[in-house]
Amino acid sequence: MELNNRKALHEYYIESRYNAGMVLTGTEIKSLRTGKVSFNDSYCYFQKNELFVKSLHIAEYKYGTDANHDPLQDRKLLLTKRELRKLETKIKEKGYSIIPLRIFINEKGLAKMEIGLAKGKKNYDKRDTIKNRELERELKRKYNS
Q1: Could you give the number of structural domains in the chain?
Q2: What CATH code is carried by the domain that includes residue 99?
Q3: Coil/strand/helix, residue 133
Q4: What ranges make up the beta strands (E) of 23-110?
Q5: Range of the structural domain that residue 122 is part of
């Protein structure tokens, strides 16, 4: 099971990627396993040397009782101290942000989030990306047929 943030690759240049563990409640993991996640406008931020993801919408669990979770609450991400320090120094530079790229369940059954250190693209960069993608697609079509 893998949920991707397709918009992130269109909006940002990804410089480096990290796999982070997620601190979730029971109803959150159950909802995540059914694929009820939206990455719209989500980003990561530091608070007291800890990394959190904000605006990640995990829908309420359908069969949850009154103990259901808040869909938009901030969720803590788990990384090593070295990775956290490296990301925190990069974030202080102008133009960098940390973006969630995908959520997946690893072989041990734990929910993980792949995050990327990203730099925003300009509009002309986005157009170039689209043009290159279409050219590659046409070349593949031409040589495969």
Answers
A1: 1
A2: 2.40.280.10
A3: helix
A4: 37-38, 43-47, 50-54, 57-58, 75-78, 96-105
A5: 2-144
